[in-house]
Design a protein that fits this description.
It is built from nine helices and nine strands. By secondary structure, the chain is an alpha/beta fold. The strands form three sheets. It has a five-stranded mixed β-sheet, with helices on one face. A two-stranded parallel sheet has the order 1-2. A two-stranded antiparallel ribbon has the order 3-5. The longest helix has 74 residues. The C terminus is likely disordered.
Length: 338
Amino acid sequence: MIRSILDGKGIENASLLTGGEPRTYLNYQHLFSHDIDPSLYPLNAVYFQQPPSFIEKYKVHLISAFSIIILLGIIIALRFRLYIQKLKQEDERREKEKAEEANRLKSAFLANMSHEIRTPLNAIVGFSNLIANAESQEESQEFYKIVETNNELLLQLVNDILDLSKIEAGQLEFNYSNINVSSIFVMLKQTFQNRTKEGVHIECVLPEKTCFIHSEKTRLTQVITNFLTNACKFTFEGSIRMGYEEIEGGLRFFISDTGKGIAKENIPHVFERFAKFDNFIQGTGLGLSISQTIVKRLNGEIGVESEEGKGSTFWFTIPCEVYYEEIPVKAVTSESAQ
């Protein structure tokens, strides 16, 4: 229509467009320059030069930031997955090392046991035959003593193996009873005084008052016996002192000797299984490890003090109520209940 007017044509026959909504066209910047509040602008108007919205203005930045966040999330998820896999691999490696170490110890145990069992058996068989053909009573007695020593060694070996298997299975039994502690040492002194090397004597250091406790007599005796056995093996001159003393909260037991002692670098490994620092002396290397397990089950502590060439002192403590006369039944009952 406008084009027709400009060309000088009439508009009588021009078609008129009708319908639709009337619209208002406004210049946004013009209104804004006159300090008119934008809330007063018509809602259905069409604005020219209107500034873009926050989303339109920063669309690229927002998309970039969102993409970066997603990318960082993927990277963190991958790193976390790798970390979990690494932990899993580390656990598998440790389990594998444990299994390999267990197999190595098992092989070492079987090799050591076969040697340790064969040695006293050969001695028993050999000297038993010699006893029958001994030319004198003295010679027969000497052979008999060798056989008896190897019998005891073999019995100790079997007991250690059985105790080790019970420890592994968690079936080491503890039966508590009333104990005259001094009587244990008197009995062990009588047992071991003939097992020491020539010139070595055993001393008992006991408190003036006899102590009575409620504990596991068999296992206590076993630990002290293990200590005494080692002391007799490694003490070639001097003395072996054994005894106990009352300390705060319980008793402290000790076995001291003037034997060969233990090298400083070997002391941290004394209570490990199969620990042997002298291959020329018979033994399984299990006694001290078993003793440590027993003392821990009794809630006590165990240790060693040693100087190479001067001797060693093995000790352990157990928490217990100490009595100076026969323990009353009521005291035992209340202690057991605790």
